[in-house]
Amino acid sequence: MAGIRDAAVVAAPAVRAALIWRPDCCKDLVVVARTRAKSWTAILDELYEGSWNPSLQRFRSPYAFRGLADADHPLSSSLVRLAGGADIRRLETALLRNFSKYAHAESSYADSVWDWLALGQHRGLPTRLLDWTYSPLVALHFVTESPEDMDRDGVVWCVNFVEANKKLPARLKRIMLREGSETLTVDMLNTFGTLAEFDRLARTPFLVFMEPPAIDRRILNQFALFSLMSSPTAEMGEWLDRHPTLCRRVVVPAELKWEIRDKLDQANVNERILFPDLDGLSRWLTRYYLPAASAGRLVETYAANPEKDARDRDRRARWAGGAPPRRTPRPGSRPR
């Protein structure tokens, strides 16, 4: 994306450990050379930055988070990726029309285009929506869920949806003010009978965040919400490029991914919880019991940090010697 580049931000008395993508246009930021993160706590500090809400006197982050295993992956919708050079509007109409026709028996509650749009996104239909979460830890899960991507930097996008709401059309602002909500819901959007009617609210594309209906436990457990552009052809990444102060990108270095992954597992942020069915359980067990030979990068990372505690040093010694990690549950206990 033009206008956003990779940098680290100065934080007295030392340089912040996490990598932050900041806009070139922000002249008030002091930018220094790229710095690799030293611990996952620095990543957490950046993800929770700006969480304090002075009016509530509570920590209530105004950010939505999206984690990607590859830092170079664009913020483009599955609909845009599917369309290629085709007519995206006609493709979107055809997809939703046929999805609602064939899926009706499985989702009798859906009675509006917004229900079908949310359900389709949730079930893998290419749509203009993107998946986000209120939880930075859930976002980190998606950065580190795939062992095949542990050798590349990941990223967590952080978008301030509260500030983004200030750029919405007046009609949407009134709806949200009346409901006392900072995000839209399917019920609020039902005011607009079609996507075309919604798209006509403004001449230029705008961005909203919507909470999906609680279709299943997966949506609840992932603390999920969707981003929605007011045009199927609009790219969210390009919109953020024009409004760079509304977002930041926290880069997760590849050498930290295994440490973050293990600590998320210990915090019970994993496939078994986020995808609470037998498929999710199988995915979690497959990754959790991955042989240590696949974690060579973690061995190198820990070998360069002798200050790690004794338990971690013991694990490094065993892994370096080719022994599998001691993941076997205690007798009579279940896998963590």
Topology of this structure?
Blueprint lengths: L3 E8 L2 E2 L3 E5 L7 E2 L7 H8 L4 E2 L4 E2 L3 E6 L9 H6 L4 H15 L10 H10 L7 E4 L2 H9 L9 E7 H4 L5 H10 L4 E2 H4 L5 H5 L7 E5 L5 H5 L2 E6 L6 H7 L4 E6 L4 H10 L4 H4 L3 H11 L7 H8 L6 H11 L16
Parallel strand pairs: 10-11
Antiparallel strand pairs: 1-2, 1-3, 1-4, 3-13, 5-6, 7-9, 8-12, 9-13, 11-12
Helix pairs in contact: 5-12, 15-16
Description:
The chain has helices at 40-47, 78-83, 88-102, 113-122, 136-144, 161-164, 170-179, 186-189, 195-199, 217-221, 236-242, 257-266, 271-274, 278-288, 296-303, 310-320; strands at 4-11, 14-15, 19-23, 31-32, 52-53, 58-59, 63-68, 130-133, 154-160, 184-185, 207-211, 224-229, 247-252. It is α+β, with helices and mostly antiparallel strands. It folds into two domains: 57-254, no CATH class; 295-336, no CATH class. The strands form three sheets. Strands 1, 2, 3, 4, 7, 9 and 13 form a seven-stranded antiparallel sheet that branches. A four-stranded mixed sheet has the order 8-12-11-10. Strands 5-6 form a two-stranded antiparallel sheet. Helix 5 (136-144) crosses helix 12 and helix 15 packs across helix 16 (310-320). The chain is globular. The two termini are 40 Å apart.
